[in-house]
Amino acid sequence: MEGELFANIWQTDRIARISPQTGKVVGWIDLTGLLSSIYRRQDGAVLNGIAYDATHKRLFVTGKLWPKIFEIQLVPKPHHG
Fold first, then answer.
1. Which of 18, 25, 27, 44 has the fewest CB atoms nearer than 10 Å to its CB?
2. What dihedral angle (degrees, nearest 10) is formed by the CA atoms of 30, 74, 54, 58?
3. Rounded to an integer, what distance in angstroms lies between the CA atom of residue 48 and that of residue 68?
4. pLDDT tens for each residue of 39-81
5. pTM confidence score
6. CB burial class (10 A; 0-12, 13-18, 19+) of residue 15?
């Protein structure tokens, strides 16, 4: 996570994790279900804020018209197979 660039994908609940060396997407952060659907009734209530606190290694996300900021932790997606 550290050293990567993060980019929210407009009007989705996904954030791309990008390698600054190659410019390629190296992973995804899926935030589906983070914000209650009651707040999604307004047009424009979309994910669009990402902040990283390097001192305490904390990741925060928010969005337009969201009522709060969320601190999130990344966990690997389990592999099936």
1. 44
2. 90
3. 13
4. 767 778 888 899 999 999 999 999 988 889 999 998 887 776 6
5. 0.82
6. buried
